[in-house]
Amino acid sequence: MNKITITLLVLAAFAAGAVLGPKLWAPMSGDAAMSGETTQEREILYWVAPMDPNFRRDEPGKSPMGMDLVPVYADQAPAGDEVTISPAVENNLGVRTEAARVRPLWRRVEATGYVGFDETRISHINTRVQGWIARLLVDAEGERVRQGDLLFELYSPELVNAQKEYLQALRRGGESLQRGAAEKLRALGMIAPEIEALGKRGTASENIRFVAPQDGIVASLSVR
User: Fold this and answer.
1) What confidence tens digit (pLDDT) does each residue in 101-123 have?
2) Of 42, 108, 153, 186, which has the fewest beta carbons less than 10 angstroms from its beta carbon?
């Protein structure tokens, strides 16, 4: 009885082996064989960073951004400067595409700054003779003025005498004398339009006008 039982077990095992054997040793189907053949035939040229195609390596590794390098196969190598990313990598990176168009780019930068005057465009209006302000049209610092605006009128006995000397030089007709008298008026602070108006008027003016030489803001006012 025991002998029969052992024999049946051995035969059963052998039969199972006979049934399983063909399955284990049967050749792969055509699709499976072709898939394995394709995998073996695909040649890897190099490994590249997903976000930087210029970063290449001859073996797997990490990119400078800590991402896994992706293989570039011989049958999918990009031509020229073209960069291709597999759909799987594109999905993992969350890449979104958009049509390129011309538009201004801006970036907000928060920083500490200082506001000051342009040192190359500061004008100082000073009197060069003794006298007093007969009329002041600028009320306070910070007031905005335009070129040609009247700032103040100055009365100076010295300027009155210099005007009379200039008028006398015009009457005498000496060119050098006229030029010298005009130079004296300019040295005392009279501007060219005022000197020209003096010659046309023919009489000395008690008050000399001082106007703004340019547009700007009054930064300092030392008279009241």
Assistant:
1) 898 888 899 999 988 888 899 99
2) 108
Q: In 10 A of CB 215, how many CB atoms?
A: 12
The pTM assigned to this predicted structure is 0.48
pLDDT in tens, 34-50: 444 444 577 888 899 98
Domain residue limits, the chain: 37-95, 125-217
SS3 state of residue 124: coil
For the beta carbon of residue 209, count every other beta carbon within 10 angstroms: 16
- Name the E strands within 23-114: 44-49, 52-57, 70-73
Q: Is 207 left (phi over 0), alpha (psi -120 to 50) or beta?
A: beta
As given in the structure block, the two tokens for residue 107 are: 């970036």
